[in-house]
Amino acid sequence: MGAYILRRLLLIIPTLIGIMLVNFTLTQFVPGGPIEQIAAQLQGQGDAFSNISGGGAEAGGGAIEESYQGARGLPPEFIAQLEREFGFDRPPVERFLNMLWNYLRFDFGTSWFRSISVIDLVLEKMPVSITLGLWSTLLAYLISIPLGIRKAVRDGSRFDTWSSGVIIMGYAIPAFLFAVLLMVLFAGGSFWKIFPLRGLTSDNFADLSTWGKIKDYAWHATLPVVASTISSFATLTLLTKNSFLDEINKQYVITARAKGLAERRVLYGHVFRNAMLIVIAGFPAMFLGVFFGASILIETIFSLDGLGRLGFEAAVQRDYPVIFGTLYVFGLMSLVVGILSDMMYVFVDPRIDFEKRAG
Asked: Which chain regions cross the lipid bilayer (predicted)?
């Protein structure tokens, strides 16, 4: 297992380089780069030259044309100055290599439009994404696995039928619509005001005791976490049920029952280990999906300032240091979580040997 993990770790480097190269290349052809963004702002604000702050970062791209759309009427010297500050006066290959060298040292530069380092910006938004990703995933697993097992054991019963209807209905409801429904019902809409409407903490959070902070955090996180869980909960429940049904009908289960083993021993001593493999395989995708991408609308509805909104706003503004910095961090985390998933395979079923498979 050690040799397999080492090979996977070594593959992280070329994989990250490939991801960054593809996205860096794409940005060279995307219209409306940061210089055009600034030019448009300047022309819309009139005399706004004093609002430009230098922040030459090596990361970034953007199609550099001889005449920027929206830059007509601005002095050519000013446009040339912006190119130097953003590093666009250098060849794309040189900018890409400088970006990789900086990123290998975890130097992601400074946001072009926020005047704050990218790493500080990510750390500032991280608590919201951790809340949505971690607790939503744990909640989905804690509910879906027991429910899926029960549905498999009672397959075809009335319980299985009506619970499947509820699950499918939950899967069909978009997360943002469910979030609005929760706000209307429980956040002071038209019914009860049980949970707060926005934010992860109260204004007096710093003055609370340790237990008070925990309760306040849980109080604020309940609605967004539940809203983020709804779709993954439905998928995971049906996946668990189908996985257990597939294992229950196999010969080794029939043999175990014929030997007189208790049903609970058969399910949790034999079936569980094999059935959980496919469920564990979906853990990284579920966690990263909620953590990185699926929370943009949830964050907007509950006024949470997390990585989802950060990535969206950076893409709109063409803030390339933020885009590439977060992409690098997210890609690295995805690859590491993939390795952890393989380790969980071995933990659940020690018979799996990735080194022999690789050989």
From this structure: 9-26, 130-149, 170-192, 217-240, 275-302, 322-348
Please give the Cα distance from 59 to 324 (Å, whole number).
7
Written as six digits, the tokens of 275 are: 């059935």
Percent of the chain with pLDDT over 90: 0
- Give the residue carrying structure tokens 């043999």: 255
Thinking of the domain 119-318, which architecture would CATH place it in? Orthogonal Bundle (1.10)
Tell me how far the alpha carbon of residue 77 is from its chain's centroid. Answer: 41
pTM of the model: 0.69
Considering only CA atoms, give the Rg of the chain: 25
Q: What is the pLDDT of residues 294-334, one digit of tens each?
A: 567 788 888 888 877 887 888 888 888 888 888 888 888 87
CB 278 within 8 A of CB 243: yes
The contacts of residue 22 (CB under 8 Å, 6+ apart) are none
Domain ranges of the chain: 2-113, 119-318
Is the pLDDT at 240 greater than 80? The verdict is yes
First-to-last C-alpha distance (Å) of the chain: 12
Q: Are 232 and 238 in contact, with CB atoms under 8 Å apart?
A: no
Longest dimension (CA), the chain: 88
- Report yes or no: 295 and 179 within 8 Å, Cβ to Cβ: no
Using an 8 Å Cβ cutoff, are 33 and 63 in contact?
A: yes
18, two tokens: 């490939």
- Statement: residue 109 has pLDDT above 70: yes
Helices (H), the chain: 2-27, 34-45, 76-86, 92-104, 118-130, 136-153, 158-172, 175-186, 210-248, 251-258, 263-266, 272-281, 283-288, 296-301, 307-317, 320-348, 354-358
Close Cβ partners of 184 (under 8 Å, ≥ 6 residues apart): 190, 191
Cβ atoms of 1 and 342 within 8 Å: the answer is no
Query: Which of 309, 293, 301, 313 has its CA nearest to residue 176?
Result: 301
